[in-house]
Amino acid sequence: NTRVLTGITTTGTPHLGNYVGAIRPAIAASREPGVDAFFFMADYHALIKSGDAARIERSRLEIAATWLAAGLDPEKATFYRQSDIPEIPELTWFLTCITSKGMLNRAHAYKAAVDRNAETGEDADAGITAGLYMYPVLMAADILAFDANQVPVGRDQIQHIEMARDIAQRFNHLHGGEFFVLPQVQIDEQVATLPGLDGRKMSKSYDNTIPLFAGGKKALRDTIMRIVTDSRAPGEPKDADGSALFTLFRAFANESETVAYRQALEAGLGWGEAKQVLYERIETDVAPMRERYEALMADPAGIETILLRGAAKARAIATPKLAALREALGLRSSA
Ligand code: TYM
């Protein structure tokens, strides 16, 4: 069987980028025959970005409800919270000991933080935690603990999956065995990076996200109406490829709907109307999921039960895996 695995960091409200970049393709993959799916809430990763306990709890509930509302079947998939799996931080340490520091120096998130410090004239590492630096190793442990073959993610995560491969390869080489499967990244090229309100990558850190469910359909419409466009008036031809509206539309529409939307923009559809059409297209997909989402959000105890069952299933795999690794590393003998 093929193992498909992906996670979402519990630091905010799920947005359209999380949905089309990760949740939707992951659930589609989980429905293929011969696939075992592992989906989780990355709450250890959340600690790197946030010390706000209430926010992390709230985000976990929202993300879990989102996966379930989007069609994840917790009976079939293994659906869990990262912090319920003590084997993950244990494996993180084993991997840390063979990961080259130079590779971590090249990680995009760390480098971006160093560059920001350079711009403001600070010391290179000012305000940067070892947690941020180690982020890719923790993520490698998430993936390698379960021998995942495929990791569906948005484009911003490609480097992390490549690092996980590198780390796995190095461990296998140093310890002379096939201890880890080399994971492959799975990207939907159509939507590899969904733009946000300002045309940059939709991201919690840019504050430009369109929430998937939060605030209901009114918030969805109001937020879509705030997407930045150029100043071309109704009647003037629009540049579809240069417009975030078109990229967002394409992420939700089929081929013929996309062709029609492009033609309408090029024929001079006004931005206001174009936003209304986009809203209606997205709302058609989101409305039935939102109903399930709201029911799930009203039952946090039910979600907790699902996550605990998922953790037991996940540990049934990770516990023997780590036992074998401890033995290979000389920490325990098999006798
Ligand atoms: P996170 O929480 O930032 O994002 C979750 C997923 O959503 C995707 N995504 C996007 N895709 C397309 N367009 C966008 N604008 C967009 N914004 C976000 C991300 O690429 C990601 O797939 N480090 C990860 C979580 C993680 C993980 C893992 C993922 C921890 N361990 C192991 C896979 C495997 C993260 O912070 O994603």
UniProtKB/TrEMBL annotation:
Main location as per UniProt: cytoplasm
Family under the similarity heading: Belongs to the class-I aminoacyl-tRNA synthetase family.
Organism field: Rhodanobacter ginsenosidimutans
Name of the molecule in the record: Tryptophan--tRNA ligase
UniProt motif ('KMSKS' region) ranges: 201-205
Role noted for this protein: Catalyzes the attachment of tryptophan to tRNA(Trp).
Enzyme nomenclature, EC number: 6.1.1.2
Sorted UniProt keywords: Aminoacyl-tRNA synthetase, ATP-binding, Cytoplasm, Ligase, Nucleotide-binding, Protein biosynthesis
Swiss-Prot/TrEMBL catalytic activity: tRNA(Trp) + L-tryptophan + ATP = L-tryptophyl-tRNA(Trp) + AMP + diphosphate + H(+)
Binding, ATP: T9, T10, T11, G17, N18, G154, R155, D156, L194, K201, M202, S203, K204, S205
Assembly and interaction partners: Homodimer.
Segments forming a coiled coil: none
One function term, GO molecular function aspect: tryptophan-tRNA ligase activity
Signal peptide (from-to): none
Subcellular location: Cytoplasm
Residues the record lists as binding L-tryptophan: D142
Motif ('HIGH' region): 10-18
